[in-house]
Write a structure and sequence with these properties.
This protein is mainly β. Helix content is 11%, strand content 49%. This is DUF2071 domain-containing protein.
Length: 249
């Protein structure tokens, strides 16, 4: 039984990743910081397509910013290009179920520092990518994320976060909430009016404690949600490698 806020007396085994035998994309996610807030489920549900329902935890919907460095992005048979394949990205996401009971991620927005990546994400994967001015700077355990949206709008939406990564989570600290917020292996999109889903294979996140030294963001409000309230739940990770499947209906 989880305690209020998702805490637990003992660690919980992480959900296992699916196997993506025929990936259409390889990616490496580095210097990841997850920043999550509670929301009333009806606030989030109002922004979802009718095919999806909020997946709550402790009676709340959860909305998160995922700030990271994307590296070694490539398709099968093509090597990663040094400049094109590495760039910062910041995602705004929530957690949902479809009519078949499958759980996954719904992206409200994805901001990427490469225009080609943003255009490819919109045109090839039907995801709400935006082109933004971005940077990820790391010094002495501190990570400085900067994201200022260029297009499409709202122009100027931002996420400037300063994060200090701490010690790794102990096994007993890997509770239901930590897995609920980070161990996600399916994403949803709507393609030509139909719900589509893709699987993502990756190893368990090596999670660390994290401290938020500063946050100035408006990506949440730009998505149509009220500004977050209260202290966020933070997790940091050095990263994982991922294999992404094609869309399925």
């Amino acid at each position: 039984m989880h305690l209020p806020g998702g805490g637990q007396e003992a660690g919980v085994r992480a959900p296992s990743s699916p196997r993506v035998a025929w990936p259409v994309m390889y990616q490496q996610w580095e210097r990841m910081t997850f920043i999550h807030w509670r929301y009333r489920p009806e606030q989030v549900q109002a922004l979802l397509p009718p095919q999806l329902r909020v997946e709550p935890f402790d009676g709340a919907a959860w909305v998160g910013l995922a700030c990271f460095l994307m590296r070694d992005v490539r398709v099968p048979g093509v090597p990663a290009l040094p400049w094109m394949s590495t760039f910062p990205e910041t995602n705004l996401r929530t957690y949902v179920r479809d009519a078949r009971g499958r759980t996954g991620i719904w992206f409200f927005s994805l901001d990427a520092a490469r225009l080609a990546a943003a255009l490819g994400g919109r045109g090839g994967f039907w995801l709400p990518y935006h082109w933004s001015g971005m940077s990820v700077d790391v010094r002495d355990g501190h990570t400085r994320y900067r994201c200022h949206r260029r297009l499409p709008g709202p122009v100027g939406a931002r996420c400037d976060a300063d994060v200090e990564a701490g010690v790794p989570l102990l096994e007993r600290e890997r509770d239901e909430l930590a897995h609920f917020l980070t161990a996600r292996f399916r994403l949803f999109s709507v393609v030509a009016g139909r719900l589509a889903t893709a699987l993502v294979e990756h190893p368990p996140w090596p999670l660390h404690h994290a401290h938020l030294d500063g946050l100035d963001q408006s990506l949440v409000q730009a998505a149509g949600l009220p500004a977050p309230r209260g202290q966020p739940v933070l997790h940091a990770s050095p990263g994982v490698r991922a294999r992404v499947s094609r869309w399925r209906w």
